[in-house]
Amino acid sequence: xxxxxxEEQKLxxxxxxxxxxxxxxxxxxxxxxxxxxxxxVDDLNEPRPPPRDFDAEINALLDRYRT
Length: 67
What we know:
mainly alpha
């Protein structure tokens, strides 16, 4: 449940950032597409969790239930 709340919070923050960038773009005269590209690049630079090792997780569960 917390993971879903965190994801929703991230989406909310991204939407708020996008809206702020659009209003900033309107105020400064920079085209919104350039602001959006900069926003997407910033999103790509965010740290991501390492990929899960499903094989190890499955083996650990199998080992637990075998004993």
